[in-house]
Every structure is written in structure tokens, then in C-alpha cells.
Amino acid sequence: MSQQHGFGYNGTEPTGSTKPDDDHDGMQQKGENVAHAQDGIRPKKLKIQGACGIRHPQVLYSILAGSGLRIGEALALKIGQHISDNCSTIHVRQSLWRGKEQEPKTQAAVRDVDVTKELAALLAKFIEDRKDGYLFCTDSGKPLSPRNILRDSLHPTLAKLKQTKMGFHCFRRFRESVLQKSEARALLVDYWMGHENREMGTRYAKQLVEDVAWRKQWARKVGLGFRLTDLQLEIGQLGQLSASKTQPAKAA
Questions:
Q1: How many distinct structural domains can be found in the chain?
Q2: Domain-located, residue 243
Q3: SS3 for the chain, per residue?
Q4: CATH classification at residue 211
Q5: pLDDT 10s digits, 26-48
Q6: Total-model pTM
Q7: Residue 62 belongs to what domain range?
Q8: Residue 232 placed within a domain
Q9: Mean per-residue pLDDT for 46-63?
Q10: Can you give the pLDDT at residue 86?
Q11: Does residue 51 lie within any of the structural domains?
């Protein structure tokens, strides 16, 4: 990527507005208006607020923007089940809707999303020595509420930036724009994003997307599209690191 957006731990946020899809990002409730997406992410730095049961919502936002996962897919991720040992691949096998696990929205949504070594290292650092449970969870181990994250973190942060209120789909749209601007095959872009693609059922397409080395090579070529900055994780809750004992993730 020729341009790297400043987006990461110490607080940059998407600008413009977004159109909700059926990933249940919480913006369709209580009659809130959501406009259509127009642009990408403008570099700005601001401390991201987090009083929604997750002390570092920046981690969630970085994963959403770096993987293209829907919010329900991200909050349904479980350690030991949906993340590879070296954290370089996210296995989307379920989603959350109103706190309940369900199957992904379509068959195409069942996929393996390869991430860059920077995002893999972030995941490894965030997971530390946890062996099971939701990747993002409350003190009691329950999954987080998208509505609470919007109310307590994303919307207040956007308000401080004087930006249009929007939902989590802005991160997904950002990732798709990064992929579309790259030279990655449309087939691979659709696979990672969980889009339906008529070619996906062909033998040739299946051989391509099942070629893990090829997918990871392209994940490295495409990159994140934004910069990750240092994040100081504190001792505390479930879903948080308790000390700096982590080993860096192996390169994808």
C-alpha cells in the first residue's frame, strides 16, 4: 500500500458515514439514523474511550479494520477454537446476535481470514496465556454487547472527533477498500470478506482459497492499510493481559 492511515491504539477513527448491513452493529436500534459510507479513514489521534466492559476497545477496532470481520463475527470469536496457534488466521465459524451464538449469515461467511504479522502479534499479546473463552468478554466471561460498545466507546470517540455517528460497518468498509485497491484477486477478496462469488464453487477457485501459503503471501502484500502503535495492556479483567509475559506471534 502506498498510503498508510494512522489508525490504531492511541486513537484514530474512521470519518464519513456508513450504511448498516445485517451484521447487527447496533446502529439500527432506537431509530438512529445511519447515512451511507462515503470515504475512508482520516488520520487523527485521540484516546479511544472504553467503559463498555472492555478496557482496550482499540484492539477490537484494529481487528475489525484489519480483517473485515462483521461485529457479530468478531465478538463470537473463541480462544482455542477460532484463532490459529500462531494467531495468523481467524476461523469464522459462528456469529453473535443479541448475545446468542448462531451460524454465520451465509455459507460464504464461513471462512478463514489471514491477517498480517502485526495483527497476529497484537492478537497473541492480547490473548497471552488464556486457553479458552471469548476473545472479547466481560469480567464474568460473557460476550460483549455491540450496543454498549457503541454507546460507551465508538460514539463518544467519534463525537470528540466531530465526526458523523456511525456503526461498526465502517471498519469493514475500510478493509474492503484496502483490499480493492490492492492487486489481490477478486476471488480472494470476496473469500476474505465473506461475499458470495459465483466462481467460488469451481474446482479451480477451491484450490486457490485452500492454498494457505498463497493466501498468506497475499495478506503480507496487501498489509493492514493503517499503522499500529504501541499499546500498554494493564493487569485486570478477563479479556485483558495481566502481565508482559507474552511471546511475539510467529510471522504469517
A1: 1
A2: no
A3: CCCCEECCCCCCCECCCCCCCCCCCCCCHHHCCCCCCCCCECCCCCCCCCCCCCCCHHHHHHHHHHHCCCHHHHHCCECCCCECCCCCEEEECCEEECCEEECCCCHHHCEEEECCHHHHHHHHHHHCCCCCCECCECCCCCECCHHHHHHHHHHHHHHHCCCCCCCCHHHHHHHHHHHHHCCCCHHHHHHHHCCCCHHHHCHHHHHHHCCHHHHHHHHHHHCCCEECCCCCCCCCCCCCCCCCCCCCCCCC
A4: 1.10.443
A5: 444 333 333 333 334 443 443 44
A6: 0.75
A7: 5-227
A8: no
A9: 68
A10: 96
A11: yes
